Amino acid sequence: MPDADLSRVRLLRVVVLASGTATMALQMCAVRLLAPWVGASIVVWSTIIGLSLLAMSVGYAAGGRLADRSMDGRALARTLTLAAVLVAAVPAVAPALLPHVTLGAQGARADLVGSAIGFGALFLAPAILLGVTPPYAIRLALARVDDAGRTAGRLYALSTVGSILGTLLAALVLVQWVGTRVTLGGIAILLLVGADAARRVRGLAGPDATDAAVVRAPELAAGSDAAVVGIRFATVVVLVEGAALMTTELAIARLVAPFFGTSQAVWAVIIATVMGSIALGSRIGGRLADRL
Predict the structure, then answer these.
(1) Helices 3-38 and 110-122, interaxial angle, to 10°?
(2) Which residue, 270, 242, 286, is CA-closest to 52?
(3) HEC states along 199-225?
(4) Average confidence (pLDDT) per 10 residues, the chain, 292 residues
(5) Which residue of 54, 59, 96, 122 has the smallest Cβ count within 10 Å?
(6) How crowded is residue 271: how many other Cβ atoms within 10 Å of its Cβ?
(7) Model-level pTM?
């Protein structure tokens, strides 16, 4: 691998690791911050996880579009910097906002409505911005289409490892020892580190990877019937896979609750375990994809 490509990939590894760690650490902080007002039941956890995934899906779509228009990491750096600012502002905004969460959430499903309002107001925007990172970083990392699967698999796996670290460190160590406010400040600093790494990424592969893909499989050119069918099939597959994954996570939480409870530590271990399987699957899937 040329020195320029190696340097770019190393910087992008820092970016995805920082972003992945921040994403799940932010989710753990959200649960702890909202718990005094709406509790920490499985309904609250499900709501926060669901909204986090919704935000990330919006970020993925935006990141893919943004990456195709950019030739370096400067736009990604601005996105991560804005996310850091929003995260740093949460401790200042939360005390004034959270008392109104319980006022706006009344009735049988007050925990669901309250957690949705609280998370949406405080964490939805930075979660969307963090979702921009994976597709953007993968686009910047691609030097050849022949190893596109392996490149994507490695970066997704590294991002997921970051998510495991963020989950366990935030839930089991940082929030317990230094509190939510300091943990959020640490997340903001971590995102600024990722933004600095993204800012230094240069030498995007440009049209080479796209050209190689067209040469390798012209029948799958954008807009062709085969490409449309392939995209639709892939959409169904990932939709089913995503639904099955989160259903499994929630089912595990419900099964272990009678024995271990539903504390943040229990949820952190469950989420980290699921993330570990995703990281391993990402690596394997990337290698398999390059053999097709």
Answers:
(1) 140
(2) 242
(3) HCCCCCCCCHHHHHHHHHCHHHCCCCH
(4) 70 94 95 90 90 93 88 91 97 89 65 89 96 91 74 88 93 93 96 94 54 45 58 72 78 87 88 88 83 70
(5) 96
(6) 24
(7) 0.85
